[in-house]
């Protein structure tokens, strides 16, 4: 039974055709190069305009520290991790499990949450807490890497909302989750 909550949760993520979000060593060049070839922002700016909170796993947070600039200025960022030191980075809050995170988001008055990172997305899906999924698929098979999807407690029925074909064979589809 999905837990009742006061905020919506959305996924906006890029994958290979075989469903990987990063190579095993974290490399994303296969994705970014094809995204650049497709041109434009692939709908990211419109998506992020409606978001007040980003939730990510440590596996997504740590690589973001190496980017030229912090990607989420102006948004509250909550990181799920059992190992990160809490309070070490003033730009984020750290949460040890989903229950604690949900309580904290509700106390902060979060309304629209961007859920990022494969393990964390799967955690939210299993809890019946994802409302919308936008997947941008680039035309490559990686064979191995960090998966987007994995075992669930049961089927997750989806309603197709839209599909757009960009340049360079990049295809983006949005689904509503029928929780
Ligand atoms: N293609 C894209 O659009 C895209 C988007 C985002 C990320 N990425 C890439 O994907 C990779 C990361 O994805 P990932 O699936 O490996 O990891 P992830 O979901 O970002 O992070 C996994 C970590 O989050 C913590 N975690 C997850 N669920 C938790 C829970 N229920 N309770 C407490 N902690 C929890 C754990 O940290 P602890 O081990 O500390 O407990 C776990 O090791 C990176 O290479 C990143 O750059 C790609």
TrEMBL record:
Q: Which GO terms describe its molecular function?
A: 5-amino-6-(5-phosphoribosylamino)uracil reductase activity
User: What range does the record give for the signal peptide?
Assistant: none
Question: What Pfam families does the database record attribute to this sequence?
Answer: RibD_C (PF01872)
Ranges where the Bacterial bifunctional deaminase-reductase C-terminal domain occurs: 12-171
Q: Which GO terms describe its biological process?
A: riboflavin biosynthetic process
UniProt protein name: Dihydrofolate reductase
